[in-house]
Design goal:
The complex is a heterotetramer, with 2 copies of chain A (327 residues) and 2 copies of chain B (283 residues). Chain A is an alpha/beta fold and 327 residues long. Helices cover 49% and strands 16% of the residues of chain A. Chain B is built from 11 helices and 10 strands. Classes of the chains: A alpha/beta (327), B alpha/beta (283). At the A-B interface, helix 7, helix 8, helix 9, helix 10 and helix 11 of A face helix 1, strand 4, helix 6, helix 7 and helix 8 of B. The complex binds zinc ion (2 copies). The site of one zinc ion has 8 residues of chain C, from loops.
Chain lengths: 327, 283, 283, 327
């Protein structure tokens, strides 16, 4: 996680933060009043904060979405009223890159599922950096199916670079596992609310994001491929990732404009990790409002609206094919 | 409905001549130099090593469909939602591929008969943007499935794809959701859905409709996978064995129903359609 | 419906006294010698090493059910379809186990409340013919599911079984089909089915209703598997590692939803029933 | 396969067969007429055949069911009008111990599935002696599901010592795999005809044998556990297998009496392997008659009758529990 643009910028601010708190401590014990110096430094701090984080480029947002301190799925899930984790695909393995289970949200039972990256190196290794294996997607499908059976809303959290691209994932039919998630979410007769909380990478993210309501954190990203992957595919040059990031339209604003994202959850200046409790609370409130609204719809209405929504997405125009007119 | 030869001539336009200009082709597998007309006569299978060359959608349709073919969705043409431009603009790339391939997009959809069975058919073509799925591919396939659902005919999709199309960004990814939903509606009504995975089938196409079929057939030696070979090699930092992600490898790993040599493909599809219909109708 | 203490006294009969005679028990895992009353007070969990002793169906029911319990199927009694006899006749074996355990067969079924939720409950008991499934076990469980389906209440089955009962031959095996079919009818109506796998759960019981549940809970350190440990060791001709086929092993292998310590079991079940009901009903 | 009782007995007969055919050959080329000697030998042959195979004990039937020459699933399947094999569980592996796919039976499309043991040592190793792994049972379930979707009858062939009892089978949830087969066959809305053609061992056999019509070859066996397994479980002594075999009631006749088997397909004297074509033909005819009869029923009727059939099986009696009367 070194090389994260946002983390690097925060280093400068950290220095300033340290000085402010030192001054504050000194001010409390020493007779000389340094309140005005402190205030000045704080103003400067806010100014720099605005300069540095006031507007973020798509590439900066990519780094924000990957910030090691950014709240993960479990930060949201553990803030729910209650959570009981369910494990496994019933066949092969319990994939720690996916967490899911029953939860209560203001008294309402839901099934919640999220991609889970690690919050440190050790956990990242265990959770494969939040990149699910086929077993993880089969757990997703199973839990979504349980939700459907018990008529419980599904609340997902999307946070993955993408599905695991390793040998055993190919051997265990990663394509099939993701395709069957898409199938399950397309047919689930219950409300589905998906929230992109960090990085939403490719089909591996979409597998948890076919939903009646898609929320996205302000500085999260959601893209057809990672910028590095896109640059490698198109230009055989992963170093052009920044260029790819700006072209891919992967910000919450872009995706809201396309109709892919229904609601953007604002983040504090500097990113969600600067006030985790507030962001988590705000996000859960927004999710709950969606769940409540969707719960008023019949399964048939939900399925019909979900179908229409995805059926509409895309840009095309009608065009008479020239050669075929030749007859 | 047009007769096949007319339809082919009409849709291929001037390209057909252009391509015929290349009289000789070298087999990428065994190195044999092949006279292009002989190769075409052998269903684009190398007579020496049985390497299956990638087929154009036109050649595929004429090799599979009995006679007539009624294209649908041909008037659905790509937009440029991201205003994409790198070395070339996206519209310029599309124009280039259109001229080179004679295709209007990476899939041709329509209705025809195979061995006397009415079918809905979609054929992807790797020669147009690497068979990538953008809005038009998603839209045409969804349209085909919706129409097939109304007509209650089986649907066969020939896949050939490098995945989602970068230049349409997230709208390309959303075609996975669109096609999946259309497949789901189609199959939930009790209709038969079959895919034929041809070389290569990866990414967003393999992880959506390709693997949602009742029966999944793959052509011999086709490369099929979720992640691309290069991505995996970079991840694991070592070379992958040759047979990794081949159709034969997937058969052993249980991911697909059968591997079929191209020469036997049409007969196989007819037999499968016959089973799905309930058997042989006898007098 | 009888009050629990009455019900327990009534069903246990003289056995309760007989068993209480054994005042001391040695923990098979850590060797600690335990005063039986202390062990019972600790839900039959060794206070030193947390080893979960196998519980009788009576103890289990009284530890899980709120108050009353209405047994059903108690009058279904085993026959001797094969006229089995080896060292003893099958009826003699049944009589012996009945006297030893106070049970009429290897499962006790009925209706009661858990944390205020109406449930159908089946509890298998390893002390009767090793918890094996013969006709009566299949019949009682099918009856329970059919009745639960009528009442639309969730069903929880505690499993503890060495598999199908040899002495009833193929009729024992057929109980897998019978219980499976009953589970299927029950769940297809939208009812919630949960199993709690306790030590040991193997063979015909694990390969039928045990693994057909919406949620599968296992008690800590329970042995769970299809084939018995001995059979596998004979097949592979080597010793298996200690943790093989434990609940914790199965959790890692993705086969079960959760492993729960017995002390937390009732609370867990109540929470799961709450979810299945749709959440907490608030004024 | 050495140690097979039936194979050993056949050795004696083979000697006689050899002598008869030598005599026949000689008779054709030599002037001396040996017809009467040949006829005498043939009569003796028939007599021995009757003595040896006229009545088989359960233990002898166990060996007959395991005879290496006994027709396997593929012998029946390849005698169908047409067969197209389908492979794999779509997730992990194609298990060669299960064969299955589409087939035509007198013009009618069916889905056929069978356990397949090897016909020689090499094939036996590849097919794990016909003992399916969880992947095999997941293939079974998938194919049964395809049949259900396409409204095609399911025809199964049962021939297994049991499900594979290895480490990886336990790791891949053999119990779940079998349980889900039972689930699928319980809910399939199409006719199911199962035929026990060799050894039907335990839950691993039942996974293919929940059916509307269960056929069984005369000298096949079908049991709750293998005789060796039963003896090991009950008496910790596998050598008492013969005793177990006689107690377990595992013959076609016993199971017909119990209502578990609907129809017994006769075998030639000496066993099915002595006239494979005739046995296969007879079996397929019987299957076809069942399929035709069942195809006249609606899915609801099929499901109801199937449920009732298994619901009935067992022997019990009503008994007043003494202690409970105490209140
Ligand atoms: Zn070649
Ligand atoms: Zn202890």
């Amino acid at each position: 996680m070194s090389g994260n643009l946002i983390v690097e910028r925060e280093r400068g601010l950290l220095e300033l933060e340290r000085r402010i708190s030192e001054l504050r401590a000194a001010n409390a014990t020493q007779p000389v009043d340094m309140s005005s110096e402190i205030a000045a430094l704080e103003a400067k701090y806010q100014q720099i904060l605005h300069e540095v984080f006031g507007t973020l480029s798509p590439w900066e947002k990519v780094h924000m979405a990957r910030h090691p301190g950014r709240p993960t799925s479990l930060d949201y899930i553990s803030a729910l009223e209650r959570f009981d984790e369910l494990h496994g695909d019933r066949q092969f393995r319990d994939d720690p890159a996916i967490v899911g289970g029953f939860a209560l949200m203001s008294g309402r039972a839901i099934v919640t599922i999220g991609q889970q990256r690690g919050r440190d190196t050790k956990e990242n290794l265990r959770r494969n950096f939040g990149m699910p294996a086929p077993e993880g997607y089969r757990k997703v499908r199973r839990l979504a199916h349980v939700a459907s059976r018990l008529n419980l809303p599904i609340v997902t959290f999307v946070d993955t670079k993408g599905a695991d691209p390793g040998i055993s994932s190919e051997e265990h039919a990663q394509s099939e596992a993701i395709a069957m998630c898409l199938h399950e979410f397309s047919t689930a007769r219950v409300p589905i609310v998906a929230t992109v909380i960090g990085e939403g990478g490719s089909g591996g993210a979409l597998a948890l994001a076919i939903a009646d309501s898609v929320l996205m954190l302000e500085h999260s990203t959601y893209s057809v491929a990672s910028p590095e992957g896109c640059a490698a595919i198109l230009w055989s040059d992963a170093s052009k990732a920044e260029e790819a990031a700006s072209r891919l339209k992967l910000t919450a604003g872009d995706l809201h404009d396309f109709g892919i994202v229904d609601e953007i959850v604002p983040e504090p200046l500097g990113g969600a990790h600067r006030d985790v409790a507030a962001v988590v609370g705000r996000t859960l409130s927004a999710i709950e409002m969606s769940v409540t609204r969707l719960s008023a719809l019949s399964p048939e209405e939900l399925l019909e609206e979900r179908y229409r929504k995805y059926r509409r997405l895309g840009t095309w125009h009608a065009e008479r094919m020239e050669p075929i007119g030749g007859r | 409905m047009m007769q096949m030869p007319d339809w082919l001539r009409a849709r291929r336009g001037k390209d057909a001549e252009g391509r015929d200009a290349a009289l000789w082709t070298k087999c990428p597998k065994c190195g044999e130099v092949l006279y292009r007309r002989d190769l075409a006569a052998n269903a684009f299978v190398c007579p020496r090593c049985a390497h299956h060359f990638r087929m154009s959608a036109f050649d595929r349709i004429s090799s599979i469909v009995d006679g007539d073919f009624a294209e649908i969705g041909a008037d659905i043409a790509p937009g440029d939602p991201l205003g994409w431009s790198d070395k070339k603009s996206y519209p310029a790339k599309l124009r280039g591929d259109r001229e080179k391939s004679g295709l209007s997009e990476a899939v041709v959809c329509g209705f025809g008969q195979i061995g006397g069975f009415d079918v809905a058919l979609a054929v992807m073509d790797f020669h147009f943007r690497g068979g990538t799925m953008g809005t038009v591919v998603g839209e045409r396939i969804a349209l085909l499935l919706e129409e097939a659902r109304k007509r209650k005919v089986p649907c066969i999709v020939f896949t050939a794809s490098g995945g989602a199309r970068m230049e349409e960004g997230m709208l390309a990814l959303m075609q996975m959701a669109k096609t999946t939903a259309a497949v789901t509606r189609f199959t939930e009504d009790g209709n038969f859905f079959m895919t034929v995975l041809t070389d290569p089938t990866t990414g967003g196409v393999s992880a959506s409709f390709a693997f949602q079929a009742d029966v999944i057939v793959a052509e011999s030696r086709a490369m099929i996978g979720f992640a691309g070979r290069r991505v995996i090699e970079q991840t694991i930092r070592q070379k992958l064995p040759d047979q990794f992600q081949t159709a034969e490898f997937l058969l052993e790993k249980g991911a697909i129903d059968m591997v079929v040599d191209r020469h036997a493909l049409k007969d196989t599809l007819v037999r499968l359609l016959e089973y799905a219909r309930g058997g042989v109708l006898r007098a």
